[in-house]
Prior knowledge:
Helices cover 36% and strands 19% of the residues. The chain is an alpha/beta fold. The protein folds into two domains: 183 residues, Glycogen Phosphorylase B (Rossmann fold); 176 residues, Glycogen Phosphorylase B (Rossmann fold, 3-Layer(aba) Sandwich). Strands 5-6-2-1-9-10-11-12 form an eight-stranded mixed sheet, with helices on both faces. It has a six-stranded parallel sheet with strand order 15-14-13-16-17-18, with helices on both faces. Helix 8 links the parallel strand 13 and strand 14. The mean pLDDT is 93.
Amino acid sequence: MRVDPIFRQQKPDKPVIVIVWHAAVVPEYRKLVSVLPEICSEYYYVLICPVSWREHGSSLSSAGSAEYHQGWCFIPLQTVFRGISKHIYLSINKLLDVLRPVLIDVIEEASSLAVFQIHLWCKKNGIPFLFNTAENIPKKKNIMHRWIEKNIFQSSSGAVIRNPYAESILILRGFTRPVVFIGNGINTEIFYPSAPKGELLAKYRAHHIRIIGFVGKMLPEKGILDLIDVFADLSERKKIQSTALLIIGTGVLEKKINNRLSEFSESIQKSIFCLPHVPNDDLPDYYRMFDLLIMPSRRYPGWEEPFGRVAVEAMACGCPVLGSDSGYIPEIVSNPDLIFKANNMRELSAKIQLLINDTELRKKAADTAPLLASRFSWNDLSVVRINFYKKFI
């Protein structure tokens, strides 16, 4: 077997399956592929992602160089036209020519340029490919994206849906190929119940008995401004006492949030903490410290919460989650007492007040949370993924 410069190691002696996913710039998400050889060793798995990625005002960077492991490898490639639906990969055709995969799974929407790029190579070489979708309500697309989507629907072998509602959208648009539901996974070797770290407790519980958490992008649709306003109101009216709000995340609303915080009284300001970034490996310690994590996602025309990975991560760590009824959140939380109507600040306020002041209710939710979250372990989801792959190989 020859060594090709672009692959930089001996070509695999097994059939190759390629997974292309922009989110794999985050090391934690590479777990999706790293567990595959343990589940099915008859294939060699190659994960391709961009060298770097920027989204919603946040910049993420991959390792920048390939990594080779037993049964799988990770190869970052340069991209152009960055963006979820706009990016394409430089030199990916050359790499695919070397690897000659038996299947390609593109974890992007059918209307994206990356899927169309893979479609062209697969069509030329007679290789089956899949696309992934998280669209849970119909969205308007421009002429180019509608044309791309139509071609992908006709040429792809099947689709992976990230929430159950996506299948009805595919059917509505005329997609007739096989579909499988595989949600977003978590690494249960990192996210599991344990005692919170003492240094975090010392830092954030020095003047507060309870801590409410928010983890996610600071975007209008995530409802972070609603949460801040409701928390400030409840604290000001002393409906919740000795309670802090810890916000972890970055995004386009950062400046607006800082301005909003400056309008509050000094006591409220001292009860709200903002962390721009926490390494993924450190997130479990924060989830374990939270008395309650809140996902206040809003509902807009053309958008509802596609999945809710943060809720799964927190629940896996034994943290109760209060979420809106936007998108797939209610199915993840699986408890109507922990759900409020999206965009309804009065309901959000009432639920926070109830949960913060009812220790027994929070404990009951915390006790059941890890089992509910275990449905989304990478290992279990990868079994479903491999079985779906084998339908087309």
